[in-house]
Amino acid sequence: MALPLEGLKVVDCSRLLPGPYATLLLADLGAQVDKVEDPEGGDYIRQMPPLLGETSALHLGLNRNKRSVVLDLKSKDGVAALQAMTDQADVLVESFRPGVMDRLGLGQEALRQRNPRLVYCSISGFGNTGPDRLKAGHDLGYLARAGVLGYGGDAGGAPAVPGVQIADVGGGSLFAVVGILAALQERARTGQGRFLDVSMTDGATAFLHMHLAARLAMGPQGAPLARGVEALNGGYACYGTYRCADGKYLAVGALEPKFFAKLCAALERPELVELGYDTAGGGAARARAALQEIFLTRTRDAWAQALGPLDVCVEPVLEGDEVLQDPQLRARGLFVDGGSQVHLKTPLDFGPMPVRPAPALGEHTAQVLTEAGLSQAQVAALTSAAGQG
């Protein structure tokens, strides 16, 4: 059965995580993704540990179902080759700082003049406009500027550093894919492509949308967002993590009174229900302390076994390889055997996922450039210049 994006041609000039995860989603949905890499080592992620032999496992996880093309974009011939590729492409994704592609002669105006149907997606830390457009950064800094970092952690304590790259994937990759698919739908109507300016910092603010939008709506009658004291970031006793007897944790998400009342009844502490929502008078803090004392009397798995059947929104906090054995995730087919390795499926199911292994550096250079219309002599010159001849 054909995948929904079969026939879509994507040129991927991005590196590391945000762009490559966006194009992984497109590739898993059937798009042809040609990954353009520098001859001096390629995408930086190829050298990042953990290594499986001489290959980064991070590269293997992010770049399946893609082809690798080595081009020196600082050379006239390399630029001409990329132009030929984008002449036939539907989408280009890049993650350089604003202005870099323009200086190379590969900016959106230049490429879309040649191919007006091209959807050109630029992913950057702060976007292509504004005073900080050229600043270097990483996920933690984007979260800091978006207010997300400052919203998590204990009241009066330090901001909690997330264990995953929220701005990169949520603010960058996912909004890039949403924008690309929307632009392709627009192009079907108008015949014209579009420039997409995806800022990871802008995208990170989406994770605070409910809270920031409410703050804006309240205006002078409201109060600034505060760490560790509001309903969903530590204020309510019914919503948080609790340590158990074995040092592992439970996630208690019994937010609605009907769930919290059921939980407190099971714990034989019904009086905690009324206290648990009292953030102003200190009742929630007392209820949290009482719950913590109770949960320390059994192991995490003992609590999960006892409370799981009661439907009270309590789950074990899985750690390490435990997530790989979770029966729900396995039943959903998130771990796909690709023969030489097991792959983590991107979470959209349109049928069996293709699992072509991540390409070696420059593995498909000659094939892709020939498809782009370059002559045998031009292909030979470019592959020789890249050290592949």
Could you explain how this protein is built, in words?
This protein is of the alpha/beta class. It folds into 2 domains: 9-205 and 334-385, Crotonobetainyl-coa:carnitine coa-transferase, domain 1 (Rossmann fold, 3-Layer(aba) Sandwich), CATH 3.40.50; 249-316, no CATH class. Helices cover 40% and strands 14% of the residues. It is built from 18 helices and 13 strands. The strands form 4 sheets. A 6-stranded parallel beta sheet has the order 5-2-1-6-7-8, sandwiched between helices. The longest helix has 25 residues, at 166-190. It is elongated.
Coarse structural class: alpha/beta
Main sheet? 6 strands, parallel
Number of helices, counting only DSSP H or I runs of 4 residues or more: 18
Strand order of the largest sheet: 5-2-1-6-7-8
What is the CATH homology-level superfamily of the largest domain?
Crotonobetainyl-coa:carnitine coa-transferase, domain 1
What is the beta-strand fraction?
Answer: 5-15%
CATH top level of the largest domain is: Alpha Beta
- The Cα radius of gyration reads 25 Å
Shape assignment:
elongated
Topology-level CATH name of the largest domain? Rossmann fold
Taking the alpha carbons of the first and last residues, their distance comes to 38 Å
Task: Assign the CATH architecture of the largest domain.
Answer: 3-Layer(aba) Sandwich
User: What number is the mean pLDDT?
Assistant: 96
Q: Pick out the low-confidence regions.
A: none
Give helix % range: 40-55%
